[in-house]
Amino acid sequence: MVSSFYRLALLGSAAALLLPGAGELSNRPAPPFRLPDTKGRTVSLADFKGKFLVIEFMSTTCSHCQHFAPVLESLHDRFQGRVGVVSIAPHPDNAITVTKFAQSYQVTYPILLDPEHKATLAYLRPAPPKYNFSIPHVFLVDQTGFVRDDFTQNPSNQALFTPAGFARLIESYIDRR
Predict the structure, then answer these.
(1) What one-character-per-residue DSSP string does the chain give?
(2) What is the pTM of this model?
(3) What's 159's domain CATH number?
(4) What's the total number of domains in the chain?
(5) Structural domain boundaries enclosing 104
(6) What pLDDT shows up at residue 23?
């Protein structure tokens, strides 16, 4: 028989896995961006002012990004009006690859093109000369435009990259207001 103390400790540990600490690219104003979607419409950080925003840096050929698309779509549906969701696809992705991706994974939230890597470099701050970074890389931006958290998918946070796990995380940030 497991005591109440141990049950509580196990629940606390499980919850801690769902709420990662602020990443190394957090705790700063969100860099502004102004990028086109696949239809040529321009979307900017300012368009989400007053909303909590989830920004994902992704690639259409990334298997983790492909598996994460339905999670983001579920957030987009669940929190519509309160939480913005946007993905940013740097070069070599283009309007054709992103359109195919959106159709294949039934994505309705905006996927923006970053052909010159301006937003990618501003958010991910990769170091020269290789400019490597991991994707998907997610940024959580609060209603005031401040990056509250950032993270990539890894073995320690798999539960977070599910519709229920990510919804709990978003709710925890919205409830902090």
Answers:
(1) ---HHHHHHHHHHHHHHHSPPPPTT-SEEPPP-EEE-TTS-EEEGGGGTTSEEEEEE--TT-HHHHHHHHHHHHHHHHTTTTEEEEEEEETT--HHHHHHHHHHTT--S-EEEETT-HHHHHHH-PPTTT----SSEEEEE-TTSEEEEEEE--GGGGGGGSHHHHHHHHHHHHTT-
(2) 0.84
(3) 3.40.30.10
(4) 1
(5) 4-174
(6) 67
